[in-house]
Amino acid sequence: MASTSTSTSTTTLYLLHFLLMFSSFHCQLTFAFTSQDYHEALEKSILFFEGQRSGKLPSNQKQTWRGDSGLSDGSSYHVDLVGGYYDAGDNVKFGLPMAFTTTLLAWSVLEFGSSMQDQIENARTAIRWSTDYLLKAAVTTPDTLYVQVGEANMDHKCWERPEDMDTPRNVYKVSDQNPGSDVAAETAAALAASSLVFTDSDPTYSSKLLQAAINVFDFANRYRGSYSDSLKSIVCPFYCSYSGYKDELLWGASWIYKASGNNSYMEFIESNGHLLGADDDSNFFSWDDKRPGTKILLSKEFLEKNSEEFQLYKAHADNYICSLIPGTPAFQAQFTPGGVLYKQSASNLQFVTSTTFLLLTYAKYLNLNGGAVSCGTSKLTEQKLIKLAKSQVDYILGDNPKKMSYMVGFGERYPKNIHHRGSSLPSIHEHPQKISCNYGYHYNSLGSPNPNVLVGAIVGGPDKHDNFSDDRNNYQQSEPATYINAPFVGALAFFSAQPTS
């Protein structure tokens, strides 16, 4: 976190740069998205998850180019691990990003479900496709959590449809002997958050999810350790837990407290918070680092109840927001010349969508409770947060220097050559003959657009100069992922309910 002693002149330069950047940028463009546009994007952002499904597809599948896949997952280990989602453009089921995706989809529904209109049931379906799988992974064996299906190194050497997979479908787990508190606590968070989604529509299922969440969290807490240490090359470098497991323990406990109302979890948070990252500031919320999300989530307790035990989380939530807002003493985020938040060259839009969701969620909490963000001696209202969030959403949808949408199937111009095996190969329905591991690269090398449109997929996005290469081999920019889309669902729901200015 930047020091609050940043000079006035430096702060002024940041602010002038930001204002000039956006004023010159928007003079060139005429984008003005309506609430109907946001609703269309919302529908497509949820539809994307159908293209990532593993398992037996239902009769109402709308991404019709996909077929059944992974129907024997887990069978050689005498467990049923059919279902769930492929994380991105490959055919592996990674537990940590899948659980985070589920938590964020559930949180999107909890905060903005009332704005989803006819898409609320589709959102619940997307969540349930994952929670059905996570339940299998969590309750099959005591003190065990199945966290991956597929040997990632072998899978990534092939370019084949999920329907044709012939790479090893090895199953990996964490246990009391080989702990994985990070992936287990995130799974607990996903189950707990999802239990709240189904409280009214399916109370029996909701109770089942909450009980599983409690059990998995207990396992995560009793046998502490990172799954990166237990599984090493199996999960690294793909989804290493770089931030460790402490942030997930606090995150998981927070969600179970929210879902259950059980004071023992509040006591856990109070007793362990300082040891698990409550005092740490982190500027980016992701499948790996849950600290900003936890601060925002727990700040609601302070805003609603003015409870001293949660005051710390409100202060750190403010620190996080201030780091994003140009002109504040703590500002330290980086934006491209075109105005989108920038952290890294690979899959940058995951940070844009997760940040946007937190901005809007915190704005909602502040609005409902008459609060404001404290940035040094200045105060920011929720409208400042909403304005920044809108600029990020609009950039993704097409209000950017390239004048293209980074959501596949939205707008007149969008990526056509995304790094995604199923999308880039002929559909199993059009080409029922098997396409082998290596022969798939023949299709990958073709210059023609992907034959199957993965509607709603948000790709990794442009570089720090707003440049984008619509190239299947440039996975850093052209690969979609479930955890890019999940928080964007909530953001789009929010703006779809706002009156068009």
What's this, in brief?
It catalyses: Endohydrolysis of (1->4)-beta-D-glucosidic linkages in cellulose, lichenin and cereal beta-D-glucans. Helix 13 (349-369) packs parallel to helix 18. The chain has 501 residues and is mainly α.
Describe this entry's structure for a reader.
It comes from Cicer arietinum. Residues 38-492 form the Glycoside hydrolase family domain. It catalyses: Endohydrolysis of (1->4)-beta-D-glucosidic linkages in cellulose, lichenin and cereal beta-D-glucans. This is Endoglucanase. InterPro entries: 6-hairpin_glycosidase_sf, 6hp_glycosidase-like_sf, Glyco_hydro_9, Glyco_hydro_9_Asp/Glu_AS, Glyco_hydro_9_His_AS. The chain has 501 residues and is mainly alpha-helical. The protein has a single domain, classed as Glycosyltransferase. It has 18 helices and seven strands. It has helices at residues 8-27, 35-51, 95-112, 120-139, 152-155, 181-197, 203-222, 227-231, 246-260, 263-272, 291-305, 311-324, 349-369, 382-397, 421-424, 440-444, 475-478, 482-496; strands at residues 93-94, 144-149, 171-175, 334-335, 341-342, 373-375, 378-380. The strands form three sheets. The protein has a three-stranded antiparallel β-sheet. It has a two-stranded antiparallel ribbon with strand order 4-5. α3 (95-112) runs antiparallel to α4 (120-139) and α13 runs antiparallel to α14. It is globular and about 65 Å long.
